[in-house]
């Protein structure tokens, strides 16, 4: 069972910021929050991950709530190539080393 | 970043035949590889976890005699779909985790294999 909930779909305009939310109210203290995205007909691609502090990399930023029950993936300037399904995943010792995928959020980027 | 190569990217086979899909970690050693299948408009579903040198662990409902997994080395895992049926047509994806890494590491995914059984 997926331990995260995300909106089914979101839309954004090109070159505008996008905030993709994820709720994980049952997160445990040692769960890492991972984000992946999947472009059409491709395997998933790593985006970012974090534990407690906000994280930044060249692709995105990850804002983690203080209570860690939610997080937000931030794309600073959406491009058409960012249109994909975005998955928020918790890595949990109870699942071994598996990545359990929920339905994700389908992001559409409008020109 | 690390690269996982999956081959073939697309395959069409006849019902009753077997198809082998390869998953290679090109620039790192992977003790653990995962196999997923994905139907159109759906999320990835984990089929099995493959550890180098040992038998794969299959998820509930996945037939181990139909989906044969071999992880003979730290850089190669294979999935063989035996006696394929049209309902086995799907997008198969592998992923790998780098040797010695724990939860604070990302997984690397192959580009997927589109299997069509006719």
Give an overview in words.
- The complex is a heterodimer of chains A (111) and B (118).
- Chain A is mainly β.
- Helix content of chain A is 0%, strand content 45%.
- Chain A is built from no helices and 9 strands.
- In chain A, the strands form 2 sheets. In chain A, strands 1-9-8-3-4 form a 5-stranded mixed beta sheet, with no helix packed on it.
- The radius of gyration of chain A is 13 Å and the shape is globular.
- The model of chain A has no long low-confidence stretch (mean pLDDT 91).
- In chain B, strand 7 (67-73) and strand 8 (76-81) form a beta hairpin.
- With 118 residues, chain B is an all-beta fold.
- Chain B has strands at 4-7, 10-13, 19-25, 30-38, 45-51, 57-58, 67-73, 76-81, 90-98, 108-109, 113-117.
- The mean pLDDT of chain B is 91.
- Chain B contains no helices and 11 strands.
- Chain B is globular and about 40 Å long.
- The A-B interface holds A 30-32, 34, 36, 38, 41-46, 49, 51, 85, 87, 91-93, 96-104 and B 1, 4, 6, 32, 34, 36, 42-46, 49, 91, 93-95, 97, 103-104, 106-112, 114.
Work out the helix count of chain B: 0
Number-wise, the strands of chain A total 9
Largest sheet of chain A: 5 strands, mixed
Distance between the terminal alpha carbons of chain A, to the nearest Å?
36 Å
Briefly note the structural class of the backbone of chain A.
Answer: mainly beta
Strand content of chain A: over 45%
Mean pLDDT across all amino acids of chain B: 91
- Rg over C-alpha atoms of chain B, rounded to the nearest angstrom: 14 Å
Query: What sort of overall outline of chain B do the alpha carbons produce when their principal axes are compared?
Result: globular
Sheet having the most strands of chain B: 7 strands, mixed
Helix content of chain A: under 10%
How much helicity do the residues of chain B have? under 10%
Report, as a whole number of angstroms, the end-to-end distance of chain B: 37 Å
Order of helices and strands of chain A: EEEEEEEEE
Order of helices and strands of chain B: EEEEEEEEEEE
Largest sheet: spatial strand order of chain A = 1-9-8-3-4
Secondary structure class of chain B reads mainly beta
List how many beta strands of chain B DSSP finds.
11
Low-confidence stretches of chain B: none
Number of helices of chain A: 0
């Amino acid at each position: 069972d997926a331990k995260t909930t995300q909106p089914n779909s979101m839309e954004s305009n090109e070159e505008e910021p996008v905030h993709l939310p994820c709720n994980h109210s049952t997160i445990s203290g040692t769960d890492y929050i991972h984000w992946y995205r999947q472009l059409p007909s491709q395997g998933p691609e790593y985006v970012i991950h974090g534990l407690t502090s906000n994280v930044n990399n060249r692709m995105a930023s990850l804002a983690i709530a203080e209570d860690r029950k939610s997080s937000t993936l931030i794309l600073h300037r959406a491009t058409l190539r960012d249109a994909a399904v975005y998955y928020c995943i918790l890595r949990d010792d109870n699942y071994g080393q598996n990545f359990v995928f929920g339905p994700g959020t389908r992001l559409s980027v409008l020109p | 970043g690390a690269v996982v190569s999956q081959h073939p990217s697309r395959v069409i086979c006849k019902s009753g035949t077997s198809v082998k899909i390869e998953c290679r970690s090109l620039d790192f050693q992977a003790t653990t590889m995962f196999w997923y299948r994905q139907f159109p408009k759906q999320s990835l579903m984990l089929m099995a976890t493959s550890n180098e040198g040992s038998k794969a662990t299959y998820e509930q409902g996945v037939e181990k005699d139909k989906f044969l997994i071999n992880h003979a080395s730290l850089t190669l895992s294979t999935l063989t779909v035996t006696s394929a049926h049209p309902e086995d047509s799907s997008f198969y994806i592998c992923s790998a985790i780098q040797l010695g890494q724990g939860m604070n590491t990302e997984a690397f995914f192959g580009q997927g294999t589109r299997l069509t059984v006719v």
